[in-house]
Specification:
Number of helices: 10
Keywords: Oxidoreductase, Pyruvate, Thiamine pyrophosphate
Strand content: 5-15%
GO molecular function, one term: pyruvate dehydrogenase (acetyl-transferring) activity
Pfam family, one: E1_dh
Number of strands: 8
Shape: globular
Order of helices and strands: HHEHHEHEHEEEEHEHHH
Cofactor: thiamine diphosphate
Strand order of the largest sheet: 2-1-3-4-8-7
CATH architecture of one domain: 3-Layer(aba) Sandwich
CATH class of one domain: Alpha Beta
Helix content: 25-40%
Protein name: Pyruvate dehydrogenase E1 component alpha subunit
Largest sheet: 6 strands, parallel
Distance between the termini: 50 Å
Bound molecules: thiamine diphosphate, magnesium ion
CATH superfamily of one domain: Thiamin diphosphate (ThDP)-binding fold, Pyr/PP domains
Length: 331
C-alpha cells in the first residue's frame, strides 16, 4: 500500500481533465467546509440527534462518484454527507435536511443519518451498519431486470464487513454477477475499535475472493487513484462482468460521532494522516500538472462562498409544519 503525500502525476487514458479535476477539488473543499459547518452547528445545538463527519475521506466520495453517470445509483452510511454531496446534491438542501428545515432533501424529517436525493441518484444513507448493502445489490438487480445498464455504487465502512447482511449482499451480487461496485472506506476504526481488534484479515479486499469478485485496494486519499479503480469497476459492471470490491484506505480526521474526541487513537497517528490529507494532495497535483495557482485559489474561493451561502439559506428556512408528519409515510 503506497501512502505518500503526492498523487500520481502521470496521466492515464480516461483520467479527468484539468478542468474536471478543478471541479473535483471544489467539491472536496465544499464537503470539508460543509462538515466543519455542521460541527459548529452541532455545538450550537442546531443539529438534532447524532452526526458523523467524513473530514479526511473526501477523495473516496468524490473520486468514486465521479466515475458514475446520470441514471446510476449510490447508497451510503450515516457518515454519508460527502457521498451525497459528491453525487451532486445541493449544499443548501443538504444543510437544510441536517438542520431540520422544510427545504431539506427529505423536508427536514430525515436528518444527518438519512440523507436521500433520488434526483441525483442518492438512494439513501443508512444508520444500521451493513443494512444497505442488500439495497445496493437490489438496485443492481433492478437495473439488470429493467435493462437500464445502470450501475449501483455502495459505500460502507471497514467495521461493516463483519455484519451478516454484508455477506448475503456480496454473495448474491457475486453469484448473479450484478452491476454493483462495493466501496469499503477503510478508515481503520469501527466506532472506537481499531480494525485488527475485530477483523482477522489485514486487507479487507482479500475478502472479495470468497464472493468470486475482484478485490482491489487503493490509496483512498488519492482522488485520481480512486477514480481510476472505480471507473474500471464501473466499466466491468456495465459490460455485464459483475461486481467489484474496492477497499479505499483512508482516515477520519475527527472522532466517530458528535463529541467523540478520539482519545483512543495512538499519539501521532492523526498528524501522520494529516500529511496525506487528500485536499492539499490534489492541489499539489494540479500545480504539478501546470494548472495556474489562480485557478486553484478560485476553486477554493468558489467552494467557500458556496458553503457559506448554502448554510445561510438553510438556516433562514423554517422547520416543517407539524401536518407534514403524515406525509411521505406508508401508512
Ligand atoms: C447493526 C448495527 N450494529 C451496531 C451499530 C452501532 N454502530 C454505529 S457506527 C458503528 C461502527 C461502524 O464502523 P465502520 O463500518 O468502520 O464505519 P465508520 O463509522 O468507520 O465510517 C457501530 C458499531 C449500528 N448502528 N448498527
Ligand atoms: Mg471505519
Amino acid at each position: 500500500m503506497r501512502l505518500d503525500t503526492t498523487s500520481s502525476s502521470a496521466v492515464v487514458e480516461g483520467d479527468p481533465t484539468d478542468d474536471e479535476l478543478l471541479g473535483m477539488l471544489r467539491r472536496m473543499i465544499e464537503i470539508r467546509g460543509f462538515e466543519d459547518e455542521i460541527q459548529r452547528a452541532f455545538t450550537k445545538n442546531l443539529v438534532r440527534g447524532s452526526t458523523h463527519l467524513c473530514n479526511g475521506q473526501e477523495a473516496c466520495a468524490v473520486g468514486a462518484c465521479s466515475a458514475l453517470r446520470p441514471g446510476d445509483s449510490m447508497v451510503c452510511t450515516y457518515r454519508g454527507h460527502g457521498a451525497v454531496l459528491a453525487m451532486g446534491a445541493s449544499l443548501e438542501r443538504t444543510f437544510a435536511e441536517i438542520l431540520g428545515r422544510e427545504t431539506g432533501l427529505c423536508r427536514g424529517k430525515g436528518g444527518s443519518m438519512h440523507l436521500t436525493d433520488v434526483e441525483v441518484g442518492a438512494y439513501g444513507s443508512f444508520a444500521i451498519v451493513g443494512a444497505h448493502l442488500p439495497i445496493a445489490t437490489g438496485l443492481a438487480l433492478a437495473a439488470r431486470l429493467d435493462r437500464t445498464e445502470a450501475v449501483s455504487l455502495c459505500f460502507f465502512g471497514d467495521g461493516s464487513t463483519n455484519i451478516g447482511a454484508v455477506h448475503e449482499a456480496l454473495n448474491l451480487a457475486g453469484i448473479w454477477r450484478l452491476p454493483v461496485v462495493f466501496f469499503c472506506e477503510n478508515n481503520l476504526y469501527g466506532e472506537y475499535s481499531p480494525l485488527p481488534s475485530t477483523t482477522p484479515v489485514e486487507q479487507l479486499a482479500d475478502r472479495a475472493a470468497g464472493y468470486g469478485m475482484p478485490g482491489v485496494r487503493v490509496d483512498g486519499n488519492d482522488v485520481v487513484a480512486v477514480r481510476r479503480v472505480v471507473a474500471e469497476a464501473v466499466a466491468r459492471a456495465r459490460a455485464g462482468e459483475g461486481p467489484t470490491f474496492v477497499e479505499g484506505l483512508t482516515y477520519r480526521h475527527r472522532g466517530h460521532s458528535r463529541t467523540d474526541p478520539a482519545k483512543y487513537r495512538p499519539a501521532g497517528e492523526l498528524e501522520r494522516w494529516l500529511e496525506h490529507d487528500p485536499i492539499p494532495r490534489l492541489e499539489a497535483l494540479l500545480a504539478e500538472r501546470g494548472v495556474a495557482a489562480a485557478a486553484i485559489a478560485q476553486a477554493r474561493a468558489d467552494a467557500e462562498s458556496a458553503v457559506a451561502e448554502g448554510y445561510a439559506a438553510a438556516l433562514a428556512a423554517s422547520a416543517p409544519a407539524v401536518e407534514l408528519i403524515h406525509e411521505d409515510v406508508y401508512a
